[in-house]
Design brief:
By secondary structure, the chain is mostly helical. 58% of the residues lie in helices and 0% in strands. The chain has one domain. It starts with 13 loop residues before the first helix and ends with a helix.
Length: 59
Amino acid sequence: DKKFYPASEYAICPNMKMTTLAAVLNSLENMEHVVTVPEDVRIKAKRALDRMLDIKQSK
């Protein structure tokens, strides 16, 4: 088992706590609240995500 320690006990976002799984599901099913980002940002973000997934798969 791993134990996780929060960086700060105050690092809680009240707005994020208002988002429920039901709201996320509804948004995905109905394609609501679409976020658009510039292409250069999208490419860099995808590269970072791909690297994280590669690290996870190699373990």
